[in-house]
Amino acid sequence: MDTYLKLMEAVPTQAYLGAAVGSIALSAILRMLGKKDAAVFVGQWPPTFILFALAYKILRPGNEDVAQEGHQAVQHASDLIGASR
Question: How much is the mean pLDDT over the chain?
Fold first, then answer.
């Protein structure tokens, strides 16, 4: 999994979205040239590129310390409960 994330970090999210738009354009061009089978094949690429972008956004490790943030949230809630009594 780490290797996959490192590989994905090397490619910016905009590149995945650009590849999706580019494959839509290429599919349209192929269709206009009468190459229906190739157009359908290339037209199936955009969802894959978009899923790569979404997977990276969801799976990338964050720089924040989740445990520390959770502890701070609990402490803040405790302070609010204590102040209302």
Answer: 81
